[in-house]
């Protein structure tokens, strides 16, 4: 692959809802650009992008995959992203590696939840947007309804660049409105034949061209003036206006096609010339020396700066860091610094990835996405810089929504499980591994059931470590609903130095305020130096739970009295006294369990709304609203997390796979009394078993 300047490098992420055809678009691009000698398919397992066994088994992308191709004097980086909401962090991270997002939308299903979320993420990150309406060859394809969805759901005005020739199975090409030419496609080569515009389309084409020119002209005063003078714009003026409009976020161009039949995917590559490059873009960051906010500008010249958008553990290359260069250039002679660790890294090799294959390169410049094997300290989100210190901002992972107990097949495998999970967590920052001190079990937290099961499947395949998944753990909390006043004396005499500490505390509900410790003692009944010991003991006990082993929140504790001994009173004595006092106080203050309640948004076809609302009601949901969004209905409800653990398969069953949902923690609410007794009994039984 020859060298390219930054101005001739483009990067785009294929984003959208699952099964909209993102990977099929990537496969068509690979075929058109000569990276593959056939049109790869997700359905028959010949895809070069979805190469992981888990992806082939499930028929969809589960992680970002990359390709780099050449097209008409441009180098184009493409990131194919997952459309499953469980893997949204990977998809969002891709946005930090590109200058444009291609929203792939099914002409049958319209704008769905992941498309909406990815469009919002692109806008927030300053990434240009375009839309490819896919599956135009399907019987129920309706691009005009999709355009309505784009306006209503995404809140942007689409600029249609194509009109379809043929409908459903008869779809065979497009009219390109910029140059007003018709292109027909035969077979799956993706190479069109120019043809006359069908006579029966002449009026529609003229109307669509006028609408496109009206939208593009508004981008620039000079274009508006020329348009008013001449009544039209030349193709080159339209391309310039589109480039400026996409770069500024004003315009969102729309293309039509069918990826599986390779119809009009070449138009995506042609559009690339109008997409933004890294040159001139601003990137937020901080000065690692003092944390002050700074900005750097994308440019081929200047000190090297890059951000890690993905890490992989490859069987042959080992640890691989995929970096997006935003300024300067890099070669195998580069020695950049990681501001997080202050370590200097050395580049042994520079690679472009095409699926699981790689292409060695000698040099990379701003705008490039490059894979770097065997960097020692780099994790996803890290910056590498030379000369001019900067830590680039990155998208932090969303909070996990579900946790499972990960059970090794034997106690001897526990360390192997932790080691394997550590490597997988390095690749996926949306996962969190913890150790439950109550149950003595490894807990893996992620965005959903698919997220967890896919991770465990990878662990078994890559590292030979098999596990069982236990019942998902719910992060309950404890609090009090009443008040209590307790005095506790700790006294221990063993013949040598003794221990003595006496405390008197009061506890009150402190809803929504967290924990507060107040010292209201007078007269020095407890030496001032030992007050922190009491607080430390109280906090320690609350963190470990009292009623059922879950952290205690929203409690105010007042230390109002106590006694001390001139010799035997010491730190440990008052820590112990504090722990016992708070334990007794909470048990007297009507302790209750709190459960996490999530703000849930369910997007489904209109004809199943009744079934969805009925199902949510069985899950103790509090329905808040029901609205229309494009061709779908949106149900918003507050639902306890405990009732949503098996929701994904239920939703799939009710909607035939056309529904989707998102969840965000709203609050902690009291558990019903009947459920509280069962939870406490269950946890007590587990704890007793572990103690035995």
Top keywords for this entry?
5 domains, about 700 residues, Rossmann fold, Elongation Factor Tu (Ef-tu), domain 3, 5-stranded antiparallel β-sheet, 16 helices, 7-stranded mixed β-sheet, alpha+beta, elongated, Alpha-Beta Plaits
What is the gist of this entry?
With 692 residues, the chain is α+β, with helices and mostly antiparallel strands.
Question: What does this 3D model show about the protein?
Answer:
- It is elongated, with a radius of gyration of 30 Å.
- It is built from 16 helices and 37 strands.
- The strands form 10 sheets. The chain has a 7-stranded mixed sheet, sandwiched between helices. Strands 29, 34, 35, 36 and 37 form a 5-stranded antiparallel sheet that branches.
- The longest helix is centred in the last third of the chain and has 19 residues, at 673-691.
- The chain has 692 residues and is of the alpha+beta class.
- The protein has 5 domains: 6-274, P-loop containing nucleotide triphosphate hydrolases (Rossmann fold), CATH 3.40.50; 282-392, Beta Barrel (Elongation Factor Tu (Ef-tu), domain 3), CATH 2.40.30; 402-473, Alpha-Beta Plaits, CATH 3.30.70.870; 478-589, Ribosomal Protein S5, domain 2 (2-Layer Sandwich), CATH 3.30.230; 594-674, 2-Layer Sandwich (Alpha-Beta Plaits), CATH 3.30.70.
């Amino acid at each position: 692959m020859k060298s390219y300047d930054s101005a001739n490098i483009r990067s785009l992420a294929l984003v959208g809802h699952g099964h909209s055809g993102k990977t099929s678009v990537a496969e068509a691009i690979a075929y058109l650009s000569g990276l593959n000698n056939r049109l790869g398919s997700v359905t028959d397992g010949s895809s070069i992008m979805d190469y992981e066994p888990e992806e082939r088994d499930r028929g969809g992308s589960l992680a970002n995959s990359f390709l780099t191709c050449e097209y008409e004097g441009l180098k184009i980086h493409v990131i194919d992203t997952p459309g499953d909401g469980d893997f949204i962090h990977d998809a969002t991270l891709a946005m930090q590696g590109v200058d444009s997002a291609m929203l792939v939308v099914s002409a049958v299903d319209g704008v769905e939840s992941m498309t909406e979320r990815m469009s919002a993420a692109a806008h927030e990150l300053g990434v240009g947007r375009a839309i490819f309406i896919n599956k135009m060859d399907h019987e129920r394809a309706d691009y005009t309804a999709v355009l309505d969805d784009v306006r209503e759901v995404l809140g942007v005005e689409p600029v249609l660049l194509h009109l379809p020739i043929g409908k459903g199975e008869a779809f065979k090409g497009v009219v390109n409105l910029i140059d007003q030419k018709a292109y027909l496609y035969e077979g799956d080569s993706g190479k069109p034949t120019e043809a006359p515009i069908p006579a029966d389309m002449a009026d529609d084409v003229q109307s669509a061209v006028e609408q496109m020119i009206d939208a593009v002209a508004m981008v620039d005063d000079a274009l508006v003036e020329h348009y008013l003078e001449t009544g039209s714009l030349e193709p080159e003026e339209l391309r310039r206006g589109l480039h400026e409009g996409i770069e500024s976020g004003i315009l969102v161009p729309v293309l039509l096609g069918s990826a599986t039949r390779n119809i009009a995917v070449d138009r995506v590559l042609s559009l690339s010339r109008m997409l933004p490059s890294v040159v001139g873009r601003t990137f937020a960051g901080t000065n690692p020396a003092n944390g002050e906010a700074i900005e750097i500008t994308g440019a081929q010249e200047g000190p090297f700066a890059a951000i890690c958008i993905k890490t992989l553990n490859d069987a042959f290359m080992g640890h691989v860091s995929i970096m997006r260069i935003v300024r300067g250039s890099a070669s195998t002679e580069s020695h950049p610094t990681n501001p997080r660790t202050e370590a200097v890294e050395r580049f042994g090799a520079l690679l472009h990835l095409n699926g699981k294959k790689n292409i060695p390169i000698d040099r990379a410049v701003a705008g490039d996405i490059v894979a770097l094997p065997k960097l020692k300290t780099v994790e996803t989100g890290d910056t590498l810089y030379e000369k001019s210190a900067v830590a680039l901002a990155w998208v932090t992972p969303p909070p996990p929504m579900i946790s499972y107990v990960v059970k090794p097949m034997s106690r001897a495998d526990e360390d192997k499980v932790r080691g394997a999970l550590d490597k997988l967590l390095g690749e996926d920052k949306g996962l969190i591994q913890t150790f439950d001190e109550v149950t003595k079990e490894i807990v893996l937290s992620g965005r959903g059931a698919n997220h967890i099961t896919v991770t465990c499947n990878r662990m078994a395949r890559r590292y030979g470590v098999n596990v069982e998944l236990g019942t998902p753990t719910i992060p309950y909390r404890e609090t009090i609903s009443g008040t209590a006043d307790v005095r506790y004396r700790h006294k221990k005499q063993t013949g040598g130095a003794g221990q003595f500490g006496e405390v008197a505390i009061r506890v009150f509900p402190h809803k929504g305020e967290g924990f507060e410790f107040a010292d209201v003692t007078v007269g020095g009944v407890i030496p001032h130096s030992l007050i922190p010991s009491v607080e430390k003991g109280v906090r320690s006990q609350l963190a470990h739970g009292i009623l059922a082993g879950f952290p205690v929140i929203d409690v105010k504790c007042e230390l109002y009295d106590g006694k001390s001994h001139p010799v035997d009173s010491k730190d440990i004595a008052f820590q112990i006294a504090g722990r016992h006092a708070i334990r007794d106080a909470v048990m007297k203050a009507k302790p209750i369990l709190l459960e996490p309640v999530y703000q849930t948004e369910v997007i489904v076809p209109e004809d199943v709304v009744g079934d969805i609302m009925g199902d949510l009601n069985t899950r103790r949901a509090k329905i808040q609203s029901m609205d229309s969004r494009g061709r779908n209905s949106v149900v918003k409800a507050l639902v306890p997390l405990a009732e949503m653990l098996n929701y994904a398969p239920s939703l799939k069953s009710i909607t035939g796979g056309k529904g989707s949902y998102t969840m965000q923690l709203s609050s902690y609410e009291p558990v019903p009394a009947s459920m509280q007794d069962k939870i406490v009994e269950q946890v007590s039984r587990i704890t007793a078993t572990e103690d035995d």
